[in-house]
Design brief:
By secondary structure, this protein is mainly alpha-helical. It has a two-stranded antiparallel sheet with strand order 1-2. It has a two-stranded antiparallel sheet with strand order 3-4. α1 packs antiparallel against α12 and α11 runs antiparallel to α12.
Length: 337
């Protein structure tokens, strides 16, 4: 058994020995993992266990009208039905066809494929514009000017509005009978007479509403990254004759990249779970997302196993995006895990 040998501090050189426990003999890496075990256990309890149960439910049949909503084991039949479009729903989605004005595509199976397309298109477009606009706002707020504090407060206001109220605001704006937005967009030749009943128009409305609200979230996170940059680097670059574009490219962008990727990661995960804004603005029947498909299968069709299959597939798609962001974040930090 390993022992810990220490001097007693006296001149006689007496030695005190005690046995070392198992934890003291381990490396720092093992010691760190042991300390993290309670957190891992809590994460498994609140995250992984529901995910595993959802996958188990997705392998069962839909027991319509029975006390137990799940039937016998059917394997991947629910996934096959979703991918082939054989899953019946009480509410049919509006058919999306090829359009010259917007790249909506009507797939062979009008359920899961449309929901995946709408979800991915919404996530990519919204995160792109929110990052671009938020970066611009963060660069402005990072400068010293009079009233900067009030400008920061005004930017946060849209982010503080609840999603349901936000959805109702845009619903009223583009309501053809009482709103002013429809007439204005018709004058521009963009929307039809009732945009809230059109999948293309409603998608654009939800997209603009989301960008209006969550750009502030991106701006604040990016601003935190900008303010962590050493200002002395800019002074040295100015003395060396670097242009503003060179200072941005070689100092600002590389050093803010980790904070930027973290902000995009959180925003992408949130965008791919979009439901409340769609439901309160145009409705899931007009703009079907993956989360909308879960709600429709669960509440309207009472197909719990199908809803579990869609929910698990949604988690897999989001996990894929998270993995890509983590790899990009690791590369931006010089390969540090």
């Amino acid at each position: 058994m390993s022992t810990d040998t220490r001097s007693d501090g006296g001149g006689g050189g007496s030695v005190l020995a005690r046995p070392l426990n198992w934890l003291e003999t381990q490396s720092e890496e093992v010691y760190a993992y042991v300390l993290l075990l309670p957190a891992f256990a809590l994460l498994a309890l609140v995250a992984f266990y529901p995910l595993i149960e959802t996958f188990r439910f997705s392998l069962l049949a839909n027991a319509l009208g029975a006390a137990d909503p799940f039937g016998e084991f059917v394997g991947v039949e629910n996934y096959v039905d979703l991918l082939t479009g054989d899953t019946p729903f009480t509410q049919q989605f509006i058919s999306l066809e090829l359009s010259d004005s917007f790249p909506f595509v009507g797939f062979g199976a009008p359920f899961l494929q449309q929901a995946i397309f709408v979800t991915l298109a919404f996530a990519v477009v919204s995160v792109f514009f929110e990052t671009l606009i938020g970066f611009g706002q963060a660069l402005v707020l990072d400068q010293d000017f009079y009233g900067r504090r009030w400008v920061r407060v005004s930017i946060i206001i849209p982010w503080a509005i609840p999603i349901v109220i936000q959805g109702m605001i845009f619903f009223l704006i583009f309501n053809p009978t009482i709103g002013f937005g429809t007439e204005f967009m018709q004058w521009l030749g963009v929307f039809g007479s009732n945009p809230l009943s059109s999948s293309t128009d409603s998608f654009l409305i939800v997209l603009v509403a989301d960008i209006w609200k969550t750009t502030a979230f991106m701006a604040l996170l990016i601003l935190a990254g900008l303010q962590s940059i050493d200002r002395g680097l800019y002074d040295v670059a100015k003395v060396s004759g670097a242009s503003p574009w060179q200072r941005f490219r070689y100092i600002t962008l590389p050093l803010v990249a980790p904070a930027l990727l973290v902000a995009m990661l959180f925003r992408t995960m949130d965008a791919m779970r979009i439901y409340g804004l769609i439901d309160s603005t145009a409705g899931c029947e007009t703009v079907p997302s993956l989360t909308c498909l879960v709600i429709i299968a669960l509440q309207e069709s009472r197909r719990w196993a199908t809803a579990s299959a869609v929910a698990f597939m949604t988690a897999i798609v989001i996990s894929g995006f998270v993995l890509l962001y983590l790899l990009a974040l690791r590369n931006s930090e010089g390969g540090v895990a």
